[in-house]
Amino acid sequence: MGLVFHAYARTHCPAGAHSVTHDAYGFCRHVRTYRPDSLCKAEWNRPGFAFSQERIALRFVRHKQTGPQTNPAIQLFFRFRQPCRELIFYFRL
């Protein structure tokens, strides 16, 4: 993953308002293109919500890593003021 980050970081350095969010979203898109098996769906959902106009959103994550195992989960995103907040509900059998 280090080489993927290095390749991205050398060519991308967003500036201005919300530069950290733009950088996170851009890096997720970069990883999704070059190493899709390395991108956790929950990580992809975070910048996606940050860029949306939604105030509340539910996202289903089929395989959320919780220690040595994966479990299904629901991410609840909400914002009423900045910044965005997130709760994750895990399902275990």
How would you describe this structure to a colleague?
With 93 residues, the chain is α+β, with helices and mostly antiparallel strands. A hairpin with a 6-residue loop joins strand 2 (69-78) and strand 3. The chain has a 3-stranded antiparallel beta sheet with strand order 1-2-3, covered by helices on one side. The chain contains 3 helices and 3 strands, in the order αααβββ. The protein folds into 2 domains: 1-39, no CATH class; 52-93.
Strands, helices and their partners?
Layout: H1 2-11, H2 19-34, H3 41-51, E1 56-66, E2 69-78, E3 85-90
Antiparallel strand pairs: 1-2, 2-3
Helix pairs in contact: 1-2, 2-3
In whole angstroms, the N-to-C terminal distance is: 32 Å
Instruction: Output the structural class.
Output: alpha+beta
Helicity level, as a percent range?
25-40%
**Coarse shape:** flat
Biggest sheet, open or closed, and with what strands and sense? 3 strands, antiparallel
> Helix segment count?
3
Strand count: 3
Order of helices and strands: HHHEEE
Strand content: 25-35%
Average per-residue pLDDT, rounded, comes to 77
Give the radius of gyration: 15 Å
Low-confidence stretches: none
Strand order of the largest sheet: 1-2-3
Number of domains: 2
